[in-house]
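This section describes the prediction task in plain terms. A model, or a person checking by hand, is given the sequence of a single protein chain and must write out its three-dimensional structure as a string of tokens. No templates, partner chains or ligands are provided. The sample shown here is typical of the held-out split.
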Amino acid sequence: MKRGIIVAIVIILAIAGIAFVLNSNKKKNEAVTSFIAQGSGAVSVRVATIKKDTVNLDFTANGNFIPVAELNLLNENSGRVSKIYVKEGDHVSKGQVLARIDAEILNTDKETAEATLQNALRDEARYSSSFKTGGVTQQQLDQAKLAVENAKLRLQASQRKVSDANIKSPINGVVNKKYIEVGAFVNAQGTQLFELVDVSKLKLKVNANESQVANLKLGNTVQIKSNVFPTDTFIGKITFIASKADNALNFPVEILVENNKANTIKAGMYGTAVFQFPKQAPAITIPRTAFVGSVSSNQIFVLEDGKAKLRHVIAGRILGDSVEILDGLKEGEIAIISGQINLTDGTPVTTVK
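The expected answer:
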């Protein structure tokens, strides 16, 4: 009985304590609300004084070097590898013989095609002579001429196959990989023979954002630095600028780089492109955050007599976190750079640091 009375007393005291705390908080909130209501109602914003700044368009971009040309050389004829004239790392010239496929069967086909052509030529001569005396018809003579043309085509095809028995390099470059050995049998289904790369020139592939790519042009000269050879400087030219951004909203750019005589730079190495531009005249710029919504809105708020005034401006180049203003602002004016979401034209504001 006594235990029940004690529990009831504790519960009553707890409820009374909670009610006291709630009532106290209510009075504090009412006091704060009353203080705010008696205030000016100004919105807190951050501002920046408008001035002209020197515009620096220079930027750098990192990327990888890739060879100007690379290919996997495939076989076109069936046969056994009889000779290999190069090894991995050898420099080769266009047209140089790299390997030879046993051409015994191919030579036999060529000899057969030559004999077929000679026989067709004799038949054509005989039919031509007989046609003059009425011994054969025009149709028979035409068929003999057609047989000669078909025999010539077969001979050309067999000669091409015999020539292809000598595997020749289609480019100037380096044998990067060799996939065959003497005695190996290759088929005409495209057996991989060699991997050839040309590193006398390389391409540096980098990315530029929308503000950077706007200042690039095909043929522009670019200074190239290699992380592996920091004391060497290479010169390249822009050969490609993407017309469409990738998924990350960057624009791929390719720069053709002349390698030095020792072919110091290797494909796959990292490089840095240093984009430099002529000195620009000072211009009025404001932070991108000053715009209402986005830069394309061309609207900002300026501070005039303690109030936010909506101003229409003409935006120019986007320069990183800043935007060039072509018209609508003067030096010395004050732009609101944050807090615009709570503003309308004429809203009282107070500045904070």
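For orientation: Residues 13 and 148 are 120 Å apart (CA to CA).
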